[in-house]
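Dear colleagues,

As part of the handover before I leave the project, I'm documenting each prediction I ran so the next person doesn't have to rerun anything. This entry is a single chain, and its sequence is reproduced below.
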Amino acid sequence: MTGVPATLDERFRAAAAAADLLDVAYDVLDDTPVGSLLVGVSERGLCRVHFDPDPESELEDLARRFGPRVLRSPRAVDRVRRELDEYFAGRRHAFDLELDLRGAPEFHQRVLAELSRVEYGRTTTYGALAAQVGAPKAARAVGTVMNRNPVPIVLPCHRVVGASGSLTGYGGGLERKEWLLRLEGALL
């Protein structure tokens, strides 16, 4: 049994994405300065950025959250790829992407909305974010939200530091957090 020719496969994936037949289109970006990223988009917008992806478990999670029609379709994530490339090159300071955060609990959505307001090159603390969402004693809960952020980098959880200004926890690892903050000029 022979496989499908690459050009036919590519055309099939592009046609499925163009006809809105997918719940999530994704691709793995292997050439970013922070390593491999799995990027997923739904019809509503960017729904996933994941470091060092294990595609099998990520795809299962995407299918559980958004629907079973999950397919690798590089063209469908071109805009996300372009904006990430511009960000990594230092030419983009804010993302212009629609986000799909459906399924996230209301508290998570409030925290992520507040996180989106943290400007490029700036940092905030878990406690400050908690206070901004009206839960000043919920710094740990904010930390949990940061850990579960479905679209890191775009929703800049790397800009959240400990109360002392120290770099604490990051789903992508502290070395990536430090690299992103240096890129933005938030660390010298």
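Residues 6-18 form the longest helix (13 residues). The mean pLDDT is 91.

All the best with the project,
I.
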